[in-house]
Each structure stands twice: as C-alpha cells, then as structure tokens.
Amino acid sequence: MYTTEKNLNKLHRNQATFFLDPKEQIELKKKLKHTSYHIYLPYPDSEKNIFYTTNPPKVVLFEIKSKIPLEHRDILGTVFSLNITNEVFGDIIITNQHYYIYVLESMAPYIKNNLLMIKNSHVILDEIPLETLQDYHRKFETITIIASSNRLDTMIARLTQTSRSQVLEKFRNKEVILNYNIAKNNSYLLKENDVFSVRKYGKYRYIGIKKETKSKNYMIEIKRYL
What we know:
By secondary structure, this protein is α+β, with helices and mostly antiparallel strands. The chain folds into three domains: 51 residues, no CATH class; 75 residues, RRM (RNA recognition motif) domain (Alpha-Beta Plaits, 2-Layer Sandwich); 86 residues, RNA-binding S4 domain (Structural Genomics Hypothetical 15.5 Kd Protein In mrcA-pckA Intergenic Region, Chain A), CATH 3.10.290.10. Helices cover 24% and strands 33% of the residues. The strands form three sheets. It has a six-stranded antiparallel sheet with strand order 8-13-12-11-9-10, with helices on one face. A five-stranded antiparallel sheet has the order 4-5-3-7-6. Helix 1 crosses helix 2 and helix 5 packs across helix 6. It starts with a helix and ends with a strand.
C-alpha cells in the first residue's frame, strides 16, 4: 500500500508520519513490529493520529469561528474543496457549538489563508493552544433500531429513513464508507465497532445486537458521532 510505504519511509528518515486514520494505523503497525515508535494522540480517543520515532510532530489546532451553526460534513467538505488530502489534517471536533480542526503545521498557513467560507458564510480560523482539547472525549448519540438483520444496507435504510432502492443508489454512487474504505458489499453483516458513514447523513459506530424480540427481529444499538 503506497500510503503505508510512504509513512514507513518517513519514520526510517526519523520524520513523523502524516495523520493516519485507524485503518492506516493498523497497516503501519504490521510493518513496525521490530521498530521503536511513538503515537501522537491529539486527545485521548482521537481517531486520526501520527506516528513518530524521536521527533514529535508539529501540529496546529484551529478554532473555526462561524456566525452560523455548522455540521461536521460542512467543514469536511469545505476542507476537501481546498484540494488537499486527508493526511494533512486530523479530526474535526464539534463541541458546545465550537468547531475545531487539527492540521499539520506545514499546512496551517495555507489552510488558514484559504478556508474563508463555509456554507456561504465567512469564517475565521484562530490558532489556539493544543492543550485546549487535551481532555476532550468524543460524544455520541445512542440509537436503537429494530430490524430483521444487521446488514449494512438495512441499517442505512433505517438510519436515513429511505427505501432499499435509494440505499442501493448510495452504494453505487460511492456514498457509503465502511471502516474507512468505500463500501462495495451492501449485504455486509456488521461486526462490533465497525464504523460506517453515509454522505449527508453522518458517521456511525455499530455496537451490536442487544436482544431478539418476540417477533424474531433484533434490537440493535448504534452510536452516531456528534
């Protein structure tokens, strides 16, 4: 995998990696069995992290000042519109109507100078101390679903309140991401802690089947990222 090899080479040159999502971290760890390394976590349960050997990474935390309410997808979509890849920025955090994003120091000036509007509204990026969110923990909304199966397409249909044909269309349009890859198998049976997202509908973590109902359906618990 090119990304894994690229980050492995950076570590061998005593440089920190880029931001890695959970799947990329697992792949890189397989290659580092006999290598001493550290992992930089911006906050306790961060998803996107950075590997390094001796020189810690240089990271900037921006607070996005907005006059209108924003959602994660609004910020993410605008960041991608700057023609940058997801390896140069970390998690996007929304808490108490405050918006934050971690970025590599090398990309901070470019992002600050070009991320000027979100949802047709002007925004300002202020650099703030990294310690601001050092004790932050992710927040979730717990959702309980009654369904005949824990198939991925069934869960999406329930969560988005759309028809089976509309859900299949989302798969065809590559709008469904499963464990950080484009989902190709709509009949995939979800496993504990699988993470999936649907464009315009949010990101979810599958917790599991809690019990079987009298009608032979299942009571399923899912957590929605807030």
